[in-house]
């Protein structure tokens, strides 16, 4: 069995044999040869027992099996352990008998070695004589050579690398050739031999060397034209003037196999003159198979007036890796997925009148391959077991496994079986059918799951590529987040609305999940506060291109938690790779096969793909609730819940008066102000293009992201009072002021944004929201900076430092809220912080 003719990825690794010699039975002794390069072809010389091994880009090596057997016996007799496995013999460099890197194929024929080498686009066939046992001189002598000029292999251009397919060599002998031994050769019947190679070759009884090239040419060369007496220099070039090369056919695709078949069954009562000489009968059909499935069969058609050659082309399912023929009419060939058998036996019972005219010698019009259900086979060989009277098919898989299949001969007579044997065979067949059906069902389920996984992964990759390749700020799949007030369970609460919009050309199928993460910043008003994150997941069943889906999350405070603003909201699409592999897969190695370790798509837990969509901040200004008409600064507070009022009054009546402390409702309003240059705001808001007063435009700008403040845009108001998510109140007042002490050039016109609330926490959150808007949106309207009084600024800084030291001193004293002294300390602190929150500075 020879290796695959194409050193493709299915070919065994370098240094491993890709062949089996069917004529040797190594039942007790197994020798492993480690070759220096990839093995392309191997042939056995029976006497003396030698292996000839062709290694890629190296040459032909000769290994003696007799010597290796003695070495194995010595190794077994010593009983000593060695560093490597027993029975492994490296093929040394001195075993190379033909050190030629251009060699591509060879064959053994009696006392000759025939080689094929490629040099500068031409093929050279060289004939070498094997040494005699008593010869002491040079072991191998080149007798002659002949040149071939095939065309470019199909699919190769002039500047392309050399074809990866190897040529094919075999020998066809005439019926009268006696004493001829050939490795992988065959004997042809006289009519077919004469029709193919000519009457001269038949009269000389010269064996013919058949060559199949990667370009598709099938050529023949007579051995006697090469082995005639050599010239004086020891090597004779028979290429000129009349080369003995004959082109038999052109397949137009790389040839991977040349063989011969016996398509006609010989009757038992044939005449004596029609019988073959001693030995096996000759073959009556020559076949050549191409890599892509094209096959040609050549046979002699014996008609009444004359014998004419018949040539018929067939098309098999490719690509074909290897093939093999036996003594019958069947040919076996292997593809990546199966081994199939075709039968060229044609008994003349065709219903086609055109076929029946030529008698029993015609070839079948079509071939019907029969599957053997054996896949991934890279080498085939047929051997006959004379003792058992049947044939054996040896198949070598791509993973190095050798499979032996017994083949029944079509001429075998039917053997009568006893009822017990019939019942046993029926049970075996039914058991085999059941096992096969179960395995087919399991494999079908696995294939279906793999197909679904690949389809899902393809869709995931398309969506990922669309998001990652989109420009910054414009994504084909976007998620927009807004804050709203909604009535949930008869109670008004703040909610966020996530609008997922698919503007891409791909559909979000089942398996995608929208993840919304709410991240709260540590509160400056509380000690030991930390960041906290909450993630909500929303499975997406299906979102077709152009469709939208809106999801709502409640943000209002509950009995156990409170709403901490501002919130950072991050939206992302997540796809679990475990959903692709199925719930039964728990191995992380299966997940690593999909994406590399450094892939930017993998989530931190390496179990899914995470695609960020958007990130935004929800602050106090977005969560305020405004009435139908904005109240003024002196408007009465909204009526409270009667149940809460009743419980509060009842609690105050039961508590002793002496333990009563200053309630929050009696505390003064917490206030803070920010002054921004009028010129800066005019440039940022572009109010010069409209008639809206600057104060009204500033208030609209601050509340532009609040959906409930849309009514304010229809009126020119400079103040607004809103309700916080927990029911507290926040007052916003915008007015124009003049800063007289900052610049020697005169007053600086500014806009003052005043924030007031009974709750210090609400005032601080509102202050933070206003500053964030000035930092984000006000930088684009920067104008000219006027001259400033630096001494005045230093004095303000000094006053602030003194206030901070005084506040720290008061905080280090007795705890606040204990007695009259604690209340006085708290009042002083409030006055200090009020001064700190209202500096005499302006944002320029």
From TrEMBL:
Pfam families: FANCAA. One of its GO terms (biological process) is interstrand cross-link repair. InterPro entries: Faap100 (IPR029251). One of its GO terms (cellular component) is nucleoplasm. This is FA core complex associated protein 100. It comes from Malurus cyaneus samueli.
């Amino acid at each position: 069995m020879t290796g695959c003719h194409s050193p493709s990825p299915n070919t065994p690794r370098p240094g491993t044999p890709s062949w089996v010699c069917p004529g040797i039975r190594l039942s007790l002794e197994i020798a492993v040869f480690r070759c220096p390069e990839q093995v392309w072809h191997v042939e056995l010389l029976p006497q003396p027992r030698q292996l000839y091994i062709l290694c890629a880009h190296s040459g032909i090596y000769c290994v003696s099996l007799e010597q290796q057997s003695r070495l194995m016996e010595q190794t077994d007799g010593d009983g000593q352990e060695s560093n490597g496995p027993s029975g492994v013999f490296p093929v040394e460099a001195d075993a190379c008998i033909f050190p030629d890197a251009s060699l591509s194929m060879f064959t053994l024929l009696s006392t000759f070695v025939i080689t094929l080498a490629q040099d500068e686009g031409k093929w050279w066939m060289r004939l070498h004589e094997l040494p005699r046992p008593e010869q002491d001189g040079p072991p191998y002598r080149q007798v002659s050579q002949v040149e071939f000029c095939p065309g470019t292999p199909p699919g190769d251009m002039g500047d392309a690398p050399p074809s990866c397919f190897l040529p094919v060599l075999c020998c066809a002998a005439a019926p009268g050739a006696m004493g001829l031994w050939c490795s992988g050769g065959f004997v042809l019947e006289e009519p077919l031999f004469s029709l193919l190679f000519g009457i001269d070759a038949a009269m000389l009884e010269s064996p013919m060397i058949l060559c199949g090239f990667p370009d598709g040419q099938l050529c023949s060369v007579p051995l006697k034209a090469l082995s005639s007496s050599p010239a004086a220099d020891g090597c004779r070039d028979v290429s000129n003037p009349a080369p003995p090369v004959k082109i038999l056919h052109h397949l137009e695709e790389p040839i991977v196999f040349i063989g011969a078949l016996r398509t006609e069954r010989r009757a038992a009562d044939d005449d004596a003159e029609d019988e073959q000489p001693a030995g096996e009968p000759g073959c009556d059909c020559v076949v050549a198979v191409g890599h892509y499935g094209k096959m040609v069969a050549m046979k002699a058609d014996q008609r009444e007036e004359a014998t004419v050659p018949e040539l018929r082309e067939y098309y098999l399912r490719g690509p074909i890796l290897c093939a093999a023929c036996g003594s019958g009419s069947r040919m076996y060939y292997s593809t990546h997925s199966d081994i199939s058998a075709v039968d060229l036996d044609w008994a003349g019972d065709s219903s086609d009148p055109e076929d029946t005219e030529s008698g029993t010698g015609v070839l079948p019009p079509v071939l019907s391959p029969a599957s053997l259900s054996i896949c991934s086979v890279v080498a085939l060989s047929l051997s006959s077991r004379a003792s058992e009277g049947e044939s054996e098919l040896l198949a070598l898989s791509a993973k190095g496994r050798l499979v032996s299949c017994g083949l029944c001969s079509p001429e075998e007579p039917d053997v009568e079986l006893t009822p017990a044997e019939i019942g046993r065979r029926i049970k075996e067949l039914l058991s085999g059918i059941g096992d096969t059906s179960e395995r087919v069902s399991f494999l079908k389920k696995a294939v279906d799951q793999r197909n679904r996984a690949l389809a899902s992964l393809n869709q995931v990759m398309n969506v990922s590529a669309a998001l990652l390749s989109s420009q910054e700020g414009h994504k084909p799949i976007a998620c927009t987040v807004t804050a709203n007030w909604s009535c949930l369970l008869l109670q008004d609460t703040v909610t966020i609305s996530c609008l997922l919009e698919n503007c891409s050309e791909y559909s979000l199928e089942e398996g995608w999940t929208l993840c919304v993460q709410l991240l709260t910043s540590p509160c400056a008003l509380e000690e030991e506060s930390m960041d906290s994150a909450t993630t909500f997941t929303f499975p997406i069943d299906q979102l077709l291109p152009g469709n939208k889906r809106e999801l709502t999350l409640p943000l209002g405070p509950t009995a156990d938690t409170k709403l901490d603003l501002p919130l950072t909201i991050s939206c992302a699409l997540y796809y679990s790779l475990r959903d692709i592999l199925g719930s039964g897969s728990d191995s992380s190695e299966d997940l690593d096969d999909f994406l590399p370790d450094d892939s930017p798509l993998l989530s931190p837990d390496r179990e899914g793909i995470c695609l960020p969509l958007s990130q935004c901040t929800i602050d106090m200004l977005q969560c305020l609730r405004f009435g139908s008409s904005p109240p003024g600064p002196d408007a009465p507070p909204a009526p409270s819940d009667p149940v809460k009022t009743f419980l509060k009054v009842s609690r105050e009546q039961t508590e002793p008066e002496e333990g009563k402390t200053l309630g929050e409702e009696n505390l003064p309003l917490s206030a803070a102000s920010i002054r921004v240059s009028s010129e800066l705001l005019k440039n940022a808001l572009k109010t010069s293009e409209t008639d809206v007063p600057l104060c009204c435009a500033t208030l609209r700008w601050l509340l532009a992201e609040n959906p409930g403040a849309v009514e304010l845009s229809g009126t020119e108001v400079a103040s607004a009072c809103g309700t916080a998510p927990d029911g507290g109140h926040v007052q916003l007042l915008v007015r124009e002021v003049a800063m007289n002490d900052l610049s020697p050039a005169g007053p600086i016109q500014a806009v003052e944004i005043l924030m007031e609330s009974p709750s210090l926490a609400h005032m601080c959150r509102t202050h933070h929201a206003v500053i964030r808007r000035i930092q984000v949106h006000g930088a684009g309207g920067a104008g000219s900076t006027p001259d400033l009084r630096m001494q005045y600024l230093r004095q303000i800084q000094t006053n602030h430092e003194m206030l901070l030291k005084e506040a720290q001193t008061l905080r280090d004293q007795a705890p606040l809220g204990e007695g009259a002294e604690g209340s006085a300390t708290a009042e002083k602190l409030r006055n200090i912080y009020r001064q700190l929150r209202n500096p005499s500075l302006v944002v320029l």
